[in-house]
């Protein structure tokens, strides 16, 4: 059971890293799958905590996190279009619950699962980005949206500008934000390795 739960956790982390909160959320079918799937997942986890007599894990970020979420909720209620604003509050609540789920896993001996899922999701994003850059510079057919090639000089393709990678998240801003968080975290196992050996 535990190995199956480990692989399921890693798979969910990879899926969440690639699909939740990005441009994909504007696709109605994917949006519905995310809302129903996340509702079932977190309802099950919260019921488990309740039946076990536990609460959400406590962190130093609790107060600012819930204060910020409360501020967003008040702003959504009094927005020009409350229905749309409250619908987007689902993303806020989802990310807050994902944060607490990760903290819970880290506090309950699942640190390696979280790191494995995170590292593998970063590897998938790197591969997608490498594929995108190769398609941009050398073979546009690798990426269907790229319909123009570049002039060839002496057998080399020389583009006039550096291509801003974006295909992994369908937009360059979420990809940049992911990299800002991912790069420091990926160095943690490397920096901790000497300490773990002693």
Structural account:
Helix content is 69%, strand content 2%. It has a two-stranded antiparallel sheet with strand order 1-2. The chain has 2 domains: 2-55 and 110-197, no CATH class; 58-109. The protein is an all-alpha fold and 198 residues long. It contains 6 helices and 2 strands, in the order αααααββα. Helix 1 (2-19) crosses helix 5, helix 3 packs antiparallel against helix 4 and helix 4 (82-107) crosses helix 5 (111-137).
Sum up the structure in keywords.
single chain; 198 residues; globular
Concise synopsis of the structure shown:
The protein contains six helices and two strands. With 198 residues, the chain is mainly α.
Shape annotation: globular
Average pLDDT taken over every residue: 77
Strand order of the largest sheet: 1-2
The end-to-end distance, rounded to whole angstroms, is 32 Å
Number of domains: 2
Number of distinct helices: 6
Number of strands: 2
Radius of gyration, rounded? 21 Å
Largest sheet: 2 strands, antiparallel
Query: N-to-C SSE series?
Result: HHHHHEEH
- Name the beta content range: under 5%
Class computed from helices, strands and strand pairing: mainly alpha
Helix content: 55-70%
Low-confidence stretches: none
Draw up the topology in text.
Elements: H1 2-19, H2 28-51, H3 62-77, H4 82-107, H5 111-137, E1 152-153, E2 156-157, H6 172-197
Antiparallel strand pairs: 1-2
